[in-house]
Specification:
Two copies of one chain form a homodimer. Helices cover 72% and strands 1% of the residues of chain A. Chain A has 328 residues and is mainly alpha-helical. The first copy, chain A, has a single domain, classed as Farnesyl Diphosphate Synthase (Orthogonal Bundle), CATH 1.10.600.10. A two-stranded antiparallel ribbon of chain A has the order 1-2. Chain A is globular.
Chain lengths: 328, 328
């Protein structure tokens, strides 16, 4: 069960309508439109976050209309972060197309992301016409706080690139910011849009945060053990790029000394080294440890939902459990 | 008369207090703090915008306290744009110190700017404790709209770098976004903080917009005819970098063919070419044309203030006229 596709179709329509409001003589509008490629036939983002927002609002008794602006805002903010991450991570391709900076240059990439950032919050403020003002202010604050936490996580992730070692605590802090914060804010915004009480808003946030962490660890697992057809990335890509992911951090903590030595050199791994590293991580139990952590987070999410009486028909969890088990 | 320095001192204190609220294990906080260098003894920004915000609020009968959060927000947003502009313009120095990206790398520079962006709006939302919620929403919208216009202007400015020719209309559009939009939003926010009526809010915006345009043209004049000691930049820097500025665009439109030919090559100018270009522009009357445009905008600002009964004791205009006549 995900959001019934008519709702997703209506979300896409809202998103397209919102983006089409912005235009003018500056080339920045064309760049933002290029990123979304709404008229194109190519692969899209999965719209995980906006669907989460809409589903939580519905679970709390609101009509989806109450949360459409917030859902658009969340998706735009996510894409703002993708445009900047693509520069920061030197990624030239996304969904098989040149990234904004690869096509227009780094300067325009930064600037187009900044423009999209403002469009995200302007979408959120549209709510002021529909919802009580204090809710709009709360949602704005939640999304801005998430943006700051995402930056804190991203700075850690970039710092890891040159770090000789990364401990589990630092890794968890990184994904709390980089991935979980926006999941948490998204669910809270959906609940706020529906007018839920503060405790329920926060409980939804805590539930969604667990899914965010599980989602990231799943992504990490796929980055090492996923097949190329499944992930859309070259096999072993994360190891070859010497990325610090959950299995690597935990594998090294559990004694995978060969991986530690390879990572300590600071250089990327060649195909043979990456295959060797994968085997070493497997033998150290890193794959099982990551899977266990993932399952633990899903279990915690379930427990929160049950204890707090969230998501009574299970639509949010079913959707997230599916999303959290696929690649980004 | 500018804002009495006790108010500026209190603003600095507010700014420092706000920035000190953010911290944690991520290196991003250190980078933001590095940019502001609040503990350092070096040259600071002139805090033109926050002072404008506070002065307008006072002119509309509010105590400065009502606008402090908005003033902090405006200054932070301005600095977010500076951090990103420094990357986009490849500038390694600001106030004699390494820019954020020059010190920490492009990726961290982008990310630290994004973090500061969220801090700006969080400051604005602090107002919700002090001011009616609808005012906070209006101010948020104004600042986000200004951010988008700044991006639109910056995209044009970057596009100019490789353009064989730039016409006066495009140049004006660029500075409307890049410089005037934030001046306009700042003044409007000060008026909104004070609870002024919509027509007065907009009139203050139109007045400040003229000062923003004048301010930019003054900066353009200094970039060609300013002395190094005055501007802190190498003499003729703008011409050497082949920047499209008011005197260049108007000079070429008025027949400065030699400058047109130099700019059309797409390359920077050497010292001799830049000196020649300056002479050619002078002969074409570009300096006087720029000064006349500047005076016209100041005159329009004055007329708006008079007609609408803004700024009755003249404090805002006196402050802006001084600021607008100095370099950025």
């Amino acid at each position: 069960m995900s959001v019934p596709s008519p709702v997703l179709a209506r979300f896409e329509e809202q998103l397209g309508r919102w983006l089409s409001r912005f235009g003018g003589d500056s080339p920045v509008y064309e760049m933002v439109a290029y990123h979304f490629d709404l008229a194109g036939a190519g692969q899209r983002g999965k719209r995980l976050r906006p669907q989460l927002c809409l589903l939580v609002a519905e679970a709390e008794g609101a009509r989806v209309e109450a949360a459409f602006d917030a859902a658009v805002a969340v998706e735009l903010l996510h894409n703002f972060s993708l445009i900047h991450d693509d520069i920061e991570d030197n990624d030239r391709l996304r969904h098989g197309r040149a990234t904004v900076w690869a096509r227009y240059g780094v300067g325009h990439g930064i600037n187009a992301g900044d423009a999209l950032c403002s469009m995200a919050y302007l979408a959120l403020l549209e709510n002021a016409a529909r919802l009580p003002e204090e809710r709009v202010i709360v949602m704005s604050r939640l999304l801005h706080e998430a943006q700051l936490q995402m930056c804190a996580g991203q700075a850690l992730d970039m710092a890891f690139e040159t770090a000789p070692a990364v401990d589990p605590g630092a890794y968890l802090q990184m994904i709390e910011g980089k991935t979980a914060a926006l999941f948490r804010a998204t669910a809270r915004m959906g609940a706020v849009a529906a007018g839920a009480a503060v405790e329920r808003v926060d409980a939804y946030g805590e539930m969604a945060r667990r899914y965010g962490l599980a989602f990231q660890i799943q992504d990490d697992l796929l980055g090492i053990w996923g097949r190329s057809e499944e992930t859309g990335k070259p096999s072993l890509a994360d190891l070859r790029k010497r990325k610090w992911t959950y299995p690597v951090v935990w594998g090294i903590a559990a004694g995978a000394g060969a991986v530690e030595a390879l990572y300590r050199t600071g250089a990327g791994l060649d195909q043979g080294q990456a295959e060797q590293a994968r085997l070493t991580l497997e033998r150290a139990g890193a794959r099982e440890a990551a899977q266990a952590a993932l399952d633990r987070y899903l279990g915690e999410a379930e427990a929160i939902a049950r204890e707090c009486g969230l998501d009574r028909d299970g639509a949010v969890r079913t959707f997230l459990a599916q999303g959290g088990r696929r690649s980004a």
